[in-house]
Amino acid sequence: MPPAASQKVLTYEVQERVLCFHGPMLYEAKVLEVKKSEDKKELPEYKVHYKGWKNTWDEFVPADRLRKMNEENLRLQKELNDNTKPSSKRTNPAPNAKAGMKMSSKAGSEDLPGASGTLPPRGQKRGRELEIEKEEDFMKRHDIKITIPDNLKALLVDDWENVTKNQQLVPLPRNPSVSQILQKYRESVPKKREGSADTDIFDEVIAGLKLYFDKSLGTILLYRFERQQYMEIRKEHPGKEASELYGAEHLLRLFVSMPELLAHTNMDPQSISKLREHIEDFIRFLGKNPEQYVAEHYESG
Question: What is one Pfam family matched by this protein (predicted)?
Answer without folding.
Answer: MSL3_chromo-like
